[in-house]
Write a structure and sequence with these properties.
By secondary structure, the chain is an alpha/beta fold. It has one domain: Aldolase class I (TIM Barrel, Alpha-Beta Barrel). It is built from 12 helices and 8 strands. An 8-stranded parallel β-barrel has the order 1-2-3-4-5-6-7-8, surrounded by 5 helices. The longest helix has 18 residues. Bound molecules: phosphoenolpyruvate. The site of phosphoenolpyruvate has 13 residues, from strand 8.
């Protein structure tokens, strides 16, 4: 279902007391300032904090998400975490294909396609990230590059599986850099992604797909970005670590 949507990616930040405090502040601010209809909100803490954050969230609205999992269902993979385990501790969502995992952990499109199937089979919805480097953009290859990420990583899914996926466009040059894509740059790529979904599936599925922007999105620029016709919300890194900023972004529709 296409919906306004804001997800916070906490990355490898926060201790247990800090995570409890941040979640408590977010829940309180949301209750005070967004008591009615809200966008779909998701918090994605690191693994050891999931249960505690889930407990603070309770039934308050924001859903729990994770940042990674292993492609195998279970077994002798010391140090790894399965999608089923994430689901069992209350996760509804998981991020997949983040550029930091593609870059530092060599996750390629083929592996992501495999992980996607594992996540969906475990009952998780997936926030699937795509995005180009600065070199790719400057070579004028952004659409080819993202088209390939989608075709190889995502489009092996069935129609029904595709409905469990949110796509996030995250230009690598904008992640954690303070350099945001302009709203026109974001809209252009979001419209392209929606066209690709329509070509691979159909216009109805494309119109129903939630597509987020990520990359130095903050309380100052969110409204302009979210006002674009194909931008349905944001995947937020740094600014999701401040309750005031995360809630302000959640109010930017
Ligand atoms: C991210 O890592 O998904 C992200 C968008 O980070 P930031 O908002 O800090 O650029």
């Amino acid at each position: 279902m296409r919906q306004n949507f804001v997800a916070g990616n906490w990355k490898m930040n926060l201790t247990l007391p800090e995570a409890r405090a941040l979640t408590t502040d977010i829940v309180r601010l949301l209750a005070d300032e967004l008591p009615g209809a809200r966008p779909q909100l998701v918090l994605c803490p690191p693994f050891p904090l999931l249960l505690a954050v889930g407990e603070v969230l309770g039934q308050s609205g924001p859903a729990l998400g994770a940042q990674n999992f292993h492609q195998m269902e279970s077994g002798a993979y010391t140090g790894e975490v399965s999608a089923k385990q994430l689901h069992s501790v209350g996760c509804q969502y998981v991020i997949l294909g983040h550029s930091e995992r593609r870059q530092h952990f060599r996750e390629d499109n083929a592996l992501l396609a495999q992980k996607l199937k594992t996540a969906l089979a475990a009952g998780l919805q997936v926030i699937f990230c795509v995005g180009e480097s600065l070199a790719t953009r400057e070579a004028d290859e952004t659409f080819d590059f993202i088209g390939q990420q989608l075709a190889e990583g995502l489009f092996g899914l069935s129609d029904a599986e595709m409905e469990q996926v949110v796509i996030a466009y995250e230009p690598i040059w904008a992640i954690g850099t303070g350099r945001t894509a302009s709203s026109a740059q974001a809209q252009e790529v979001h419209a392209f992604i929606r066209q690709q979904v329509a070509a691979a599936y159909d216009a109805g599925i494309a119109a129903n797909t939630t597509i987020l922007y990520g990359g130095s999105c903050n309380a100052q620029n969110a409204r302009e970005l979210f006002s674009q016709p194909d931008v349905d919300g944001g995947l937020i890194g740094g600014a999701s670590l401040k309750a005031r900023d995360f809630v302000d972004i959640s109010k930017s529709f």
